[in-house]
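Q: For a teaching session next week I want to show students how multiple molecules come together into a single three-dimensional assembly. I've collected the sequence lines for a complex. Could you give me the predicted structure tokens for the whole thing so I can convert them for display?
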Amino acid sequence: MDLAPLQQRFVMHFGEMGARWGVNRTIGQIYALLFLSDRPLCADEIVEKLGFSRSNVSMGLKELQAWRLVTLQHLPDDRREFFSTPEDLWEIVRTLAEQRKAREIDPTLSLLRELAMETPTSDEDRHAQARIGETTQLIELLTGWYDDVRKLDTDRLEKLLALGAAVQRILEVKDRLKLFPGGRQRANPDKEV
Amino acid sequence: MDLAPLQQRFVMHFGEMGARWGVNRTIGQIYALLFLSDRPLCADEIVEKLGFSRSNVSMGLKELQAWRLVTLQHLPDDRREFFSTPEDLWEIVRTLAEQRKAREIDPTLSLLRELAMETPTSDEDRHAQARIGETTQLIELLTGWYDDVRKLDTDRLEKLLALGAAVQRILEVKDRLKLFPGGRQRANPDKEV
DNA sequence: CATAATTTTCAGTAATTTCTGAAATTCACG
DNA sequence: CGTGAATTTCAGAAATTACTGAAAATTATG
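A: Of course. Below is the structure for the complete assembly, covering every listed component.
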């Protein structure tokens, strides 16, 4: 491996972490390398830097493209394919969230919904189904929230995140305004979201 | 395997999914079984239901305890250990988030902070370090938000999630109130959270 | 403290996943 | 359309991870 110590440590770490994120060591390292690079790299450069076989790098890049985590581009007067990651970190976060949802959450949710339709055959089944129903609701709440916030532009999203729990205080103010009116009144204050 | 079809499908699915969540098939299935069960189960019952070896079940339960995802309890006049998952789904979500943060995010964050301190030895290094710095900031923003919302009680958390992007509209109202005052004014409106 | 029920450990094996090198394929360009 | 540079495929090897059974350790109880 031919890398400056700083980059080496980063790349190694993401190799290990890759495993926890549904990709293998090779893929984690390739991604980390491209992420740090100040220019697109071609497959042979990656082979050189990381010491994997050419075919392994080829497969890794394929998978990273399937995840939409790297993009392919051509340089003028060069037949080779060059790869890079987005400059914008938020774009990366959004892609990761999108892909993980598609791979982990969506299939689970459709199974849960399907199971919730089945007719239970015993008390045990009835309990299991109740549990499955609760789980479905909770996941729907979480993914619904996600579907909402992902529509926000980055600037608003950052502000919202920076607010953190403070948003809660603002909501309390909102509620208090409803309880002790001074301005316009809602028709039915009990009907909470 | 000795399970009603409904439970069987659920258990199988979480066996596969377990792999994506940092545990293996056995552990995913054991957890799913306990999750659906209407009463605590002992190791031999799990062996019976899932068809794994006794030792494998023992190791799986150990790991689930390390994750704090199952709790051990004793029944009166019975020497065996019984296991169950929390009734409250939110408790489960919180535990999962806590554990994944501790296993994936925290080690990454401390490495990134360390690397940000190193002295770069080249232009390439300088670019890499800038990227690492950006990443650190972004992760800090996300974990800061998480640290805030996890302190909310379940009721408030659910309401906040249900609001979704609508919270954005409320914030806009808040901003407008600051810009066109009518009530009490903050001392220093620029000093945002 | 002896016993028997229960749980854990661990060395070896089975299963799975990752990785490689050789061969096949693709593709731009003359 | 032939050439050669670049990429991909894939069968098998290597490495890793999961699982088992036998033996050891633990623990409640008489």
